[in-house]
Design goal:
Shape: globular
CATH class of the largest domain: Alpha Beta
Bound molecules: guanosine-5'-diphosphate-alpha-D-mannose, magnesium ion
CATH superfamily of the largest domain: Spore Coat Polysaccharide Biosynthesis Protein SpsA, Chain A
Distance between the termini: 41 Å
Number of strands: 19
């Protein structure tokens, strides 16, 4: 099994700590000494069947990623550099094409670099079990039982159980990426849907064949980008012209919404997408007033707050449901239940340079 780690995102909702030049997946935001990327790699490398990881990322993060992998004693198969971001469907194709180059038709485990897993044993047991579903051209995704109508996730409606799978895998009736709130509420209430965890497992050829059905140009451009790629130190630099011509789309929209080969394997391991300050609030330890305080923080008469100090003392009085994140050059103050919109600030910053 070849782990292909997607580490090219900008982590816009964790601004102001996550920055274009140093995004959240490279930061130790969970309170351990390791970054989210390091946690992701360390977690899966515990499985004996796991090959060396392929990390797909962009130019800017190459040295940090190389040194973070070295720090945990992992030698990657490759650190692939995308000249431009084309979202996750092409990144998965690049990973699959490289996996094929290493011989045979291996299982590819596609992993975002920025997830939290509480129970690693259950997570690994589920991964090992799920590899049984890739043999018959299954595109496996891991489904999480939803507890709220989160609109930032894909929703998977399960169909009948895969024969002889003792309830461990189900065919997919439908896959809806990031529905609006009304539909998300309906899905959660129905009890028939899982969240898409964003982790996938498939034979390299299965993914490439499915992608070729729906996005042939993507496959063509990715092949060109690899054929004309050049190695530079430890990095594989994709051919700029070929990759720049590649259409941009996520694996969820480009393949999972359309394929009939999807299989969902329910995953119960205390999973969280560490996407926003509220999801970090949920996974961190809280005081008796349900506040999370990181760094030099003082609170009086305050409840349900996420307070994060990096450089200076941060103090709050009489607060409820507030996130304050202080960094060297910017301070975020937001209602904790509105922190998804931090990405709007981030994109305005990008526009203004
Ligand atoms: N190499 C590379 N290139 N990586 C990328 C790119 C890219 O252009 N764009 C995003 N990534 C990486 C991100 O760093 C992250 O690790 C992963 O791919 C997923 O991208 P996100 O941008 O975080 O996706 P999402 O959270 O909006 O949605 C996905 O994950 C959800 C669960 O966390 C979807 O798969 C949803 O269906 C799913 O519910
Ligand atoms: Mg995400």
């Amino acid at each position: 099994m070849i782990p292909v780690i997607l580490a090219g995102g900008t982590g816009s909702r964790l601004w102001p700590l996550s920055r274009k030049n140093f995004p959240k997946q490279l930061m130790p935001v969970l309170g351990s000494e390791y970054s989210l990327l390091q946690e992701t790699v360390r977690r899966v490398m515990r499985l004996p069947e796991m090959g060396r990881p392929v990390v797909v990322t962009n130019e800017k993060y190459r040295f940090i990623i190389a040194s973070q992998l070295q720090a945990i004693g992992v030698e990657p198969e490759s650190i692939v550099l995308e000249p431009v971001g084309r979202s996750t469907a092409p990144a998965a194709a690049i990973g699959s094409l490289l996996a094929l180059q290493s011989g045979g038709n291996p299982d590819v485990l596609l992993l975002p670099a920025d997830h939290y897993v509480q129970n690693v044993e259950s997570f690994l047991a589920c991964l090992s079990m799920a590899s049984g579903f890739t043999e018959n051209s299954g595109l496996v995704t891991f489904g999480i039982v939803p507890d709220k109508p989160e609109t930032g996730y894909g929703y998977i409606k399960r169909d009948a159980g895969v024969p002889d799978s003792s309830g461990e895998g189900f065919f997919i009736d439908s896959f809806v990426e990031k529905p609006d709130l009304a539909r998300a509420e309906e899905y959660v209430a129905s009890g028939n849907y899982y969240w898409n965890s964003g982790m996938f497992l498939f034979k390299a050829e299965t993914y490439l064949k499915e992608l070729d059905k729906f996005e042939p140009e993507m496959v063509r451009c990715c092949k060109g980008a690899i054929d004309k790629a050049h190695e530079d130190l430890d990095f594989l630099r994709l051919d700029k012209d070929s990759f720049a011509r590649c259409p941009e789309d996520s694996i969820d929209y480009a393949v999972m919404e359309k394929t009939s080969k999807g299989i969902v394997v329910p995953l119960d391991c205390g999973w969280s997408d560490v996407g926003s300050w509220s999801s970090l609030y949920e996974v961190r330890d809280k005081d008796e007033s349900s506040n999370v305080s990181i760094g030099d923080v003082m609170l009086e008469d305050s409840t349900n707050c996420y307070m994060h100090s990096s450089e200076r003392l941060v103090a709050g009085v009489g607060l409820d449901n507030i996130a304050v994140v202080e960094s060297k050059d910017a301070v975020l103050v937001s209602r904790l239940d509105k922190v998804q919109d931090v990405k709007k600030i981030f994109s305005r910053l990008k526009k203004d340079g």
